Amino acid sequence: MSKLALLWDESYLWGIMAYKCLKKIGISFDIVTADELTDTLRDDYKILIVPGGWASNKKEALGEVGTNTIREFVYQGGSYIGFCGGAGLATSEGIGLLDVKRMPSSQRVPSLSGKIKARLTNHEIYKGIDEPIFHIWWPSQFLIDSPELRIIASYEETLDDAFSSDLKISAVKKYGDWEYLESLYGINLNPDRVIGSPLVIEGKYGKGSIILSLIHFDTFDDKNGQRVLKNLIDYLGNGKIDDRVDEIDSQDTSVNHSYNKYIEEIHNSTKELIDFGIKNFLWFWRNEMLLQWRRGIRGLECCNLYILGLELYNLSTRLSVCQKDNLLKPLKDLRDKLIPYIEALKELLFLERLELQKGHLTYIKTENYHIEAKRMALFSSSKSYGGVYKNILNSFDKLLLLVLKSTKIRASLKSKSIITV
Fold first, then answer.
1. Which of 25, 128, 212, 362 has the most CB atoms around it within 10 Å of its CB?
2. CB of 347 closer than 8 Å to CB of 341
3. How many structural domains comprise the chain?
4. How many whole angstroms separate alpha carbon 277 and alpha carbon 271?
């Protein structure tokens, strides 16, 4: 049987979302990193899935060697599936698997999220889809010139419970004016601008097949998306992707180990951060993994911290005492950095909440010197993660990766998959 690899680097909550979805549909997979690609990809796998995240960060993590490894893997007959930022990685601005570009930020609608209705072509990956409603999460947009690429899904409609920036579509349709709001926000907001634009494209690189999707078929609670993802893997794997199970049950349930104490403190700290934002009207939950935040607030960054912490917390019972001993130092180091950072972050969020009462606040722009200084100290000026935040995020991610590999988490088939095709 063939195998599937999930590229972990620079994915964070999007990587967690993808691996949870793969487990849920009963597909076996291995988590791989850029450092491991040269040793394993070409010989061991049929399909590489690249989750969401910043495409530029993914490209940097791969470096020249990782980039060439993926290109050679696909060229020789491997398959590539990219979601959102993973799709962006494969464009001509990324590692160049397909002759497609991303639309400049000034021309696209940059902050659409939630349910959309897609116009689908007649393709076997859509088998069993009666109503083509899926989820997008703040995607880019494709610019396609090559006649060799096949558009297999396009935007038909953004549904009423979706959002453009922090504006609910249904509310603007009923009470607002897109033209006025676009002048107020200084960005494109009207979802009608994206009607007819490509959502999913299919192409070839050498002998290999590539599917790039701005739809998150890996959205955890989206049954339509899960069905398409299962069909997609069957399609590219010719129905021969390994579905065996390798999952370790709970091992150490002791409450006395220091690991349990540290992980509890980390979880409580990140949960308090999310609760703080909810109580100060800065964000709310869209689903069990994603927040909706007010414009100008770094909600995705805070969501990353919480979801990574929650996953570490949930996996802690799968570790043996010996494994906890080995992971204790990096966990303590993370705790020691994270807790004071979150306290400083809550102070920033409170200042931003007050600033929102006064007027204009954006992701990178504020006229308040104190807010600007705290933002630089906590995040740097980078939109794609930087500064102390990136350091903590990487520590979180490295630790989670160690835990996942230690527990050998793969697809769970203890109950039948919810997907039947």
1. 212
2. no
3. 2
4. 10
Q: Are residues 231 and 345 in the same domain?
A: no
End-to-end CA distance of the chain: 20
Going by DSSP bridges, is the β-strand pair 198-205/167-168 parallel, antiparallel, or unpaired? unpaired
Buried b or exposed e, range 22-58, using 16+ CB within 10 angstroms: bbbbbbbbbbbbbebbeeebeeebbbbbbbbbbbebb
What local confidence, expressed as pLDDT, does residue 42 receive?
Answer: 74
Phi-psi region of 12 (alpha: psi -120 to 50; beta: other; left: phi over 0): left
pTM of the model: 0.93
* CA pseudo-torsion sign 337, 395, 271, 136: positive
Beta-carbon contacts of residue 161 (< 8 Å; ≥ 6 apart): 114, 115, 168, 169, 170
Residues 263 and 360 occupy one common structural domain = yes
Q: What is the mean pLDDT of residues 207-212?
A: 98
Q: How far is residue 188's CA from residue 191's CA, in Å, rounded to a whole number?
A: 9
Among 6-20, 27-41, 83-97, 302-316, the least confident range: 27-41
Q: Rounded to the nearest 5°, which phi and psi values hold at 219?
A: -60, 130
| Helices 369-379, 387-407: crossing angle, 10 deg rounding | 30
Q: Which two tokens stand for residue 20?
A: 């949870």
